[in-house]
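Lab notes, practical 5.
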Amino acid sequence: MVAPHIRSIGTAGGSLRVYSYGTGPGAVLAGGSLTRTAVYERFARSLSATVPVHVYDRRGRGGSPPQPEDYSMETELEDLDTVLHATGSSVVLGHSFGGGIALEAALRLPVSRVAVYDAAVNIDGCLPTSTLPALVAASARGDHVGAVTVFSREIDPVMARVPLPDSAARALVWATSHLTRDGHAWKEMVPALAQEIALLDSSRAAADRYAGIAVPLLLLAGARSPAYFRTIASGLAASLPGSTSMVVPRANHSALHRPSEAMLGAFRRFLRQAA
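Output from the prediction step:
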């Protein structure tokens, strides 16, 4: 298995770590909140036979700097634009919060096409952000286990179906944070998570805000993801009749971490049209 080419790309606020699967212009992937860039390796490697895929550590994780105090969507777009220029790419892929960045890029950056999975855009306030104060408070006091527990109760379908007492939920998150690679990374990513959820909470646009997207757009949502991701995809598709929309069978919100052939096939077909 060939290792990705790793490099740092300079910005005004520090250097962004970029992992390139293949060389030359291709697609840039913006990842989700509370997600290590490394979990996209299998997905990026599989797609790199179609086009090169460049995955970058967004601010607040891995080898990239923390988010600035004046963090906003402009921060994300400036970073994405920097990676696009440095790699010569014009295609943007996005997952979850990164899907929201990708959709903004389709409106505001010179990109050629965009594909998203479970895009986290707060269409008419459909995303669950009611526990934001508790999440921000836990992050401020350095309680990353508490912050992830609060976050998981809102976005994890398993925890929603089988509600646990607070002590049991916290114990589960504590064990995961100590025993898994993903969990080990939570401590560094929780401050960024709090800022990203705050940004989503403040952004409650209607779906037709994205009607100005003029590039080819692929909207994917998981059949087993929280229902609001399918609501977002269908709302966007209704505002963008030229887009392609699909619910991926048996796929949950983390499906890009271990992508099925159905998932990969949808992305490959879309990316081949860019070649």
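Observations recorded by the TA: DSSP finds ten helices and eight strands in the chain. The domain at 5-121+205-272 is CATH 3.40.50.1820 (Rossmann fold).
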